[in-house]
Design goal:
Strand order of the largest sheet: 1-3-2
Largest sheet: 3 strands, antiparallel
Shape: globular
Order of helices and strands: HHHHHHHHHHHHEHHEE
């Protein structure tokens, strides 16, 4: 199967079974696309949908987000996790307003200069909002390329009758299929296959095809040099930080109450989390109580 054949399979799957109804795919507003991309980092699509709807209702533009108190932004974000994303998103909105006069940067290079916006997010927004020719790697695109060009395993077939079954392409020159693959190698493949002028749809198609492969039982994480298994949530610092922010989203709380949120055996962990959250500017101490920033 050649690159051309691979592209036909991907396009056919996307046409017939793509996730065309996702709310952020119904807009070309770069702000709303940026919100969706930040939310989707390390978070499943199904979980993001209601948070995206509420967040863009409360803060429909970059100007609205930039003008909102950080505490309000964090409170709206509650339940989604990785709260630093909300702070960085607000900082990016403030820079768009203050440095760019409210004009949203159009190139990936300009976007990557915004606070908290990395290579993937910058290129994804450039592609999805402005249809710029851009290549980037995220988990589903990585799966699609690993399966197509670096794997000898076939998929178990699609769950939906009539959808195309994925077939493996021969590995690229440079080593056996068993070798772990870098994202740099994946980007090289993506650059060769990018259909000029169709970046928006092509990248969406790759994402959907990769998601389909995963649901079909294709598991290729071990083939990537960049895969790291996420640590368990229960007992983690993420859980401690989330518990504190969730409590403060309800209102101010005294230190003894905050330290006891997860039981006496985790008071030291919560104390450490309080210190870190204060340093990051995600919470404040006013007198004897903690609050979200105003």
């Amino acid at each position: 199967m050649t690159q051309s054949e691979f592209k036909r399979v991907v396009w056919r799957y996307y046409k017939n079974y793509g996730r065309h109804e996702l709310p952020w795919r119904k807009t070309k507003d770069p702000y709303k696309i940026l919100v969706s991309e930040v939310m989707l980092q390390q978070t499943q699509v199904e979980r993001v949908i209601p948070f995206y709807a509420e967040f863009t209702r409360r803060f429909p533009t970059a100007r609205k987000l930039a003008a909102a108190p950080l505490g309000e932004v964090l409170a709206t974000w509650q339940g989604l996790g990785y709260n630093r994303r909300a702070k960085m998103l607000r900082q990016a909105a403030k820079e768009i307003v203050e440095k760019h006069g409210g004009r949203f940067p159009r190139s990936a290079a300009e976007l990557e200069e915004l606070p908290g916006i990395g290579h993937y997010t910058a290129n994804a927004v450039a592609a999805f909002a402005f249809n710029k020719d851009a290549v980037f790697v995220e988990t589903n695109i990585r799966t699609a390329i690993l399966h197509g060009f670096f794997s000898t395993r076939t998929s178990t077939g699609p769950p939906t009758r009539g959808a195309p079954a994925a077939r493996p392409i021969l590995p690229l020159a440079g080593g056996p299929a068993s070798m772990r693959v870098s994202d740099r190698e994946i980007l090289q493949v993506l650059k060769r296959m990018l259909p000029r002028g169709k970046s928006r749809q092509w990248n969406l198609a790759l994402m959907d095809y990769g998601a389909h492969l995963k649901k079909s039982g294709v598991k290729l994480n071990a083939k990537s040099k960049h895969y790291a298994k996420q640590s368990k949530f229960a007992g983690s610092n993420r859980q401690a930080r989330g518990a504190i922010l969730k409590e403060l989203a309800r209102g101010s709380a005294a230190e003894p109450r905050v330290l006891g949120l997860l039981g006496d055996n985790r008071r030291a962990q919560l104390a450490s989390a309080l210190t870190a959250l204060q340093k990051e500017g995600l919470i404040q101490k006013r007198g004897k109580v903690f609050t979200l920033p105003r």
